[in-house]
């Protein structure tokens, strides 16, 4: 069945069964490997993308459930102001180790900062504890979120 | 204490040629897996106008500096720290360096210590320190020589700095790029003088990692991301019973699913091939598979435990024997014994196992993230009946290694499947398959026994333990007369005790249950029984645990200094409220000396909260201090996860756990603040990748005891054992 | 004289008939109350089943699994029972179960409000009274309660919970019990 999807502002058409998770549309059908597979059961957050700005687990979101919602992936989050702040902070704090979880972490952090401009430690716990990092970068993620929250640099455009 | 495997491997070298001589053999003709910044895989030969003194370095006429790193990047920072060592000696800025991953070629890229082309054992920095700095130093010498020849001046009047050779008396200078043609024609010395660490400009600084930018924008390519034209994707199921085999399959329902192409089977596996993993996975669920369970279908954790208990009653291999423990025990004022139990553990790296393979008549290409590319190469060659050189292994960034990807046995079923199709086949293992077909940290039982004087001081220590020998399977060449150099490493403790006895009784689980290298290997296993038993003895002697240890560390000043530093910074000895306590552990391994204090609160329901952790580390020269900090934090978290949640169990020959709901990782809300005190040192660098893990478990368990009075001799921690008794 | 006697006779006759009716009504009502309480006791078995109880918590978080452990991933109630702004229930729990049945889903997935928390009620009597309390239950009378339990997607999800175990009482039997409970006056058990 054909589905028309809005992926990072581009219209993309795919022909798959209704129950195929969005994750595999992105990774295998469209070749966008920035969004990762970690568990397949919404337990690890590596597959986090935004639908109309809201973080969802793409491994458990059927393509048929997406509809006209705007899909934003890690490949495009840097086009948003909050995404840029998060990526800058992630670099400044040297957050990633292996890096495999970081696409999901960044998408979750961007959603947090969009909703709460100055998150407390509790806010961070509640927004980020769904994203697993086996390398244990949680301490730096927390610091980076706070750095991003305080970052008032605005890039042109 | 040096790494015992490295010490062993250094004696064992199949060739007499020096490390660099071997790597010089293939200078200029490099087949490369990928580059940083992330780009697609390309096969390249050295472009014209380049100077490539060996397989590790290429300097272009455009001043580009490409460093080929044979050690993999799995988060521990080798793709930055190794280039830092070379760039320092070569006198170029790190920002000018491009990193390439070495292909599988053990003859050229074998580890300087292990000989095998592997990354692990916290051996990257220590080995590179001794060997890889020469890559930069020798190249610099040749460039200076080339410049001196160009100007017809003495080389002694020339200096290299910032990618430029200067003639000091006249002020003339030439960029490296301008010298490559002449340099390429000059002989490369086997060795050159290395810089004095006091003159380091780069090493010792927290240079930003080269791989960070691509890891924050989704462009970093991991093995599971590999894309090859014409590729199809398969979802695989391995026989769930240990050592079982494939029986039969009804593929009809799977084949009717849109996107599914075919169902293929191997000796102990079945896979559904499709256009995309979503269809493949859906197809796999629609299969009806019969397995032939084989001889181990009744195996269980209970059976394994019983076998280990029986093994402990046998005589094993005496690994360490100082003084006479028996005599000491007979004469002791008092004795103490305890049995410690360490559970089997999975690695559970976030990137599941995967492998893409294209089998052709004339050769095979393999794409995967692996800590042991030549091992994968060998297995594939064997399955396909091909010469090893015909198998090209392309390596990638690893989404976590932790020792899992030192093993490559999973490429065997992939090869069995891939050879049945003529297109490139990407096989993706689900999280369930990854957890249930791991190379597990073995189940260990450790019987600790102490002979004590009348003050409770330790005069004799016996440590007998039963479990699997990973090295005997993984690298028999590293054993001497059957002695596994890792399994008993640190079992004797760093303490000065007059009578010490260590005995290892080897017992293997059934064929098909793979045991493997798990972050920290021997030291991570042993620190739990030893550091907790020492803690028990301190309490028996009514002595503070730090003071008790101090009395036995007189001969280990570096370790003693770290213990005192950690204790001081943690406020050791200052009062804490009820149900809150501090525990300490120390570790001397991988040429590092460290101590970790953990502070916990245990609530009335027995739930443990880590309040704070304070770590003191002396790792010799820290090549990248920020990298050390990251590794200490990360390794501690890996250990805490095991202590709190780590337990792989078997029922009816099958692993019980399957995903992150029943094999839980530590999450953000549980993360304690971790303070690192890294001391400056001029000693040679140690390896810090595993240090935190080896410290975390005993430090936590000792803290739990301090908080509750309950001594846990087994993990994972069970809250019901820590509840307030009414 | 004859008229008064006739009237008194009629009155007495009426009273006799009436009191006999009263006696019959009281017996019927007692029987109803017993049947009602029995029906509710069985209804309560469903309400206390993890598929229902896990979201009718008295805590700041939902529960999970047949062992009712705290929902992993630090998921919390949030200001309106829908999670926090960056971790809404609907981020993972969508309109339907995930295709493989592993992640529950139904329309409007969220926690029951604290006023409808059940897990703290130790007796069926307390549970029933809480359920019927119109100041707590969104001002529903018994008929409205029964209608809610027939039609709400989150309630109905309990019998189509993907890979999880549904209540041991079938949906049809549950609905029949609800009808019986309503018909017999929606009374609460005495314990």
Summarize the structure in words:
The complex is a heterotrimer of chains A (157), B (726) and C (191). Chain A is of the alpha+beta class and 157 residues long. Chain A has helices spanning 22-29, 74-77, 81-92, 102-115, 121-128, 138-150; strands spanning 2-7, 10-15, 48-51, 54-57, 70-72. Chain A folds into two domains: 2-72, Ubiquitin-like (UB roll) (Roll); 77-150, Orthogonal Bundle (DNA polymerase, domain 1). Chain A has a five-stranded mixed β-sheet, with helices on both faces. In chain A, helix 3 packs across helix 4 (102-115) and helix 3 crosses helix 6 (138-150). Chain B has 21 helices and 30 strands. Chain B has a seven-stranded mixed β-sheet with strand order 13-14-11-21-18-19-20. In chain B, a hairpin with a 2-residue loop joins strand 4 and strand 5. The two termini of chain B are 47 Å apart. The model of chain C has no long low-confidence stretch (mean pLDDT 90). Chain C has a two-stranded antiparallel ribbon with strand order 1-2. In chain C, strands 3-4 form a two-stranded antiparallel sheet. Helices cover 46% and strands 4% of the residues of chain C. With 191 residues, chain C is mainly α. Chain C has one domain (36-183). Chain C is elongated and about 85 Å long. The chains are: A alpha+beta (157), B alpha+beta (726), C mainly alpha (191). Chains in contact: A-B, A-C, B-C. At the A-B interface, helix 1, helix 3, helix 4, helix 5 and helix 6 of A face helix 8, helix 10 and helix 20 of B.
């Amino acid at each position: 069945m054909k589905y028309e999807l809005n992926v990072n502002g581009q219209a993309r058409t795919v022909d798959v069964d209704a129950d195929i998770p969005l994750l595999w549309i992105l990774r295998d059908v469209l070749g966008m490997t920035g969004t990762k597979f970690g568990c397949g059961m919404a337990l690890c957050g590596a597959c986090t993308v935004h639908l109309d700005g809201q973080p969802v687990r793409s491994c458990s979101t059927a393509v048929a459930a997406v509809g006209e919602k705007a899909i934003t992936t890690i490949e495009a989050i840097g086009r948003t102001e909050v995404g840029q702040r998060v990526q800058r902070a992630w670099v400044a704090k040297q957050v990633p180790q292996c890096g495999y979880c970081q696409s999901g972490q960044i998408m979750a952090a961007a959603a947090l900062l969009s909703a709460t401009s100055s998150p407390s430690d509790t806010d961070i716990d509640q927004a980020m504890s769904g994203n697993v990092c086996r390398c244990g970068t949680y301490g730096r993620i927390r610091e980076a979120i706070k750095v991003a929250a305080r970052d008032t640099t605005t890039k042109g455009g | 204490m040096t790494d015992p495997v490295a010490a062993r491997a250094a004696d064992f070298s199949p060739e007499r040629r020096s490390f660099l001589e071997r790597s010089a053999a293939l200078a200029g003709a490099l087949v490369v897996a990928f580059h940083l910044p992330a780009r697609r895989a390309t096969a390249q030969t050295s472009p014209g106008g380049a100077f490539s003194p060996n397989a590790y370095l290429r300097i272009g006429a455009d001043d580009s500096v490409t460093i080929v790193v044979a050690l993999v990047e799995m988060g521990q920072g080798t793709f930055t720290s190794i280039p830092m060592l070379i760039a320092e000696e070569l006198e170029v800025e790190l920002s000018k360096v491009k990193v390439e991953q070495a292909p599988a070629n053990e003859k050229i890229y074998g580890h300087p210590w292990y000989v095998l082309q592997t990354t692990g054992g916290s051996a990257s920095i220590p080995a590179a320190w001794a060997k890889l700095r020469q890559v930069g130093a020798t190249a610099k010498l040749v460039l200076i020589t080339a410049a001196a020849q160009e100007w017809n001046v003495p080389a002694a009047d020339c200096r290299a700095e910032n990618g430029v050779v200067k003639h000091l008396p006249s002020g003339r200078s030439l960029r490296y790029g301008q010298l490559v043609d002449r340099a390429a024609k000059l002989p490369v010395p086997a060795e050159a003088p290395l810089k004095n660490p006091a003159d380091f400009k780069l090493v010792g600084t927290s240079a930003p990692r080269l791989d960070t930018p691509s890891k924050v924008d989704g462009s970093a390519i991991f093995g599971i991301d590999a894309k090859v034209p014409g590729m199809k994707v398969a979802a695989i199921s391995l026989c769930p019973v240990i050592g079982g085999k494939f029986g039969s399959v009804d593929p009809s329902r799977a084949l009717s699913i849109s996107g599914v192409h075919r169902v293929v089977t191997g000796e102990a596996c079945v896979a559904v091939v499709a256009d995309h993993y979503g269809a493949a996975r859906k197809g796999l669920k629609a299969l009806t598979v019969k397995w032939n369970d084989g001889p181990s279908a009744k195996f269980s954790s209970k059976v394994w435990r019983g076998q280990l208990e029986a093994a402990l009653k046998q005589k094993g291999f005496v690994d360490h024997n100082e003084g006479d423990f028996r005599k000491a025990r007979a004469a002791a004022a008092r004795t103490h014994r305890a049995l410690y139990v360490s559970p089997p553990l999975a690695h559970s790296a976030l990137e599941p196992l995967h492998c893409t393979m294209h089998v052709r008549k004339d050769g095979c290409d393999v794409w995967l993230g692996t800590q042991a590319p030549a091992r994968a190469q060998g297995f594939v060659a064997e399955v396909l009946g091909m010469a090893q050189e015909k198998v090209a292994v392309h390596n990638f960034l690893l989404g976590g290694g932790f020792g899992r990807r030192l093993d490559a046995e999973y490429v065997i079923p992939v090869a069995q499947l891939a050879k049945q199709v003529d297109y490139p086949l990407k096989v993706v293992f689900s999280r369930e398959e990854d957890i249930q077909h791991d190379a597990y940290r073995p189940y260990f039982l450790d019987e600790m026994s102490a002979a004590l004087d009348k003050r409770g001081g330790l005069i004799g220590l016996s440590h007998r333990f039963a479990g699997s020998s990973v090295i005997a399977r993984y690298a028999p060449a590293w054993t001497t007369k059957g002695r596994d150099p890792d399994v008993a490493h640190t079992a004797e403790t760093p303490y000065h005790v007059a009578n010490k006895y260590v005995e290892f009784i080897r017992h293997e689980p059934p064929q098909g249950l793979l045991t493997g290298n798990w972050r920290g290997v021997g030291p991570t296993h042993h620190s739990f029984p030893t550091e907790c038993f020492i803690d028990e003895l301190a309490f028996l002697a009514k002595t503070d645990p730090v003071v008790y240890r101090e009395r036995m560390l007189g001969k280990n000043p570096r370790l003693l200094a770290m213990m005192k530093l950690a204790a001081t910074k943690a406020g050791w000895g200052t009062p804490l409220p009820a149900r809150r306590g501090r525990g300490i552990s120390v570790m001397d391994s991988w040429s590092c000396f460290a101590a970790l204090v953990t502070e916990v609160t245990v609530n009335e329901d027995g739930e443990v909260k880590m309040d704070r952790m304070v770590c003191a580390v002396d790792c010799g020269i820290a090549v990248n201090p920020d990298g050390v900090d990251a590794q200490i934090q990360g390794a501690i978290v890996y250990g805490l996860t095991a202590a709190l949640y780590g337990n792989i169990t078997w029922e009816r020959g099958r692993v019980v756990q399957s995903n992150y709901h029943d094999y839980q990782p530590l999450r953000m809300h549980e993360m304690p603040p971790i303070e690192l005190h890294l001391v400056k040192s001029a000693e040679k660098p140690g390896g810090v990748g595993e240090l935190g893990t080896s410290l975390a478990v005993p430090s936590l368990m000792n803290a739990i005891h301090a908080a509750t009075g309950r001594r846990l001799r087994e993990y994972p921690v069970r809250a019901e054992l820590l509840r307030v008794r009414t | 004289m004859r008229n008064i006697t006739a009237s008194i006779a009629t009155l007495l006759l009426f009273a006799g008939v009436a009191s006999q009716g009263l006696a019959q009504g009281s017996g019927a009502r007692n029987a109803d109350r017993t049947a009602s309480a029995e029906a509710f006791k069985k209804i309560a078995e469903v309400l206390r089943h993890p598929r229902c109880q896990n979201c009718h918590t008295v805590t700041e978080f939902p529960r999970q699994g047949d062992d009712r452990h705290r929902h992993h991933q630090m998921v919390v109630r949030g200001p309106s029972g829908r999670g926090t702004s960056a971790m809404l229930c609907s981020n993972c729990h969508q309109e339907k179960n995930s295709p493989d049945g592993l992640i529950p889903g139904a329309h409007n997935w969220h926690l029951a409000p604290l006023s409808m928390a059940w897990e703290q009620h130790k007796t069926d009597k307390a549970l029933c009274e809480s359920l019927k309390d119109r100041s707590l239950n969104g001002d529903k009378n018994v008929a409205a309660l029964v209608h809610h339990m027939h039609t709400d997607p989150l309630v109905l999800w309990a019998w189509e919970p993907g890979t999880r175990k549904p209540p041991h009482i079938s949906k049809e039997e549950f609905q029949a019990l609800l009808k019986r409970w309503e018909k017999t006056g929606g009374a609460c058990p005495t314990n």
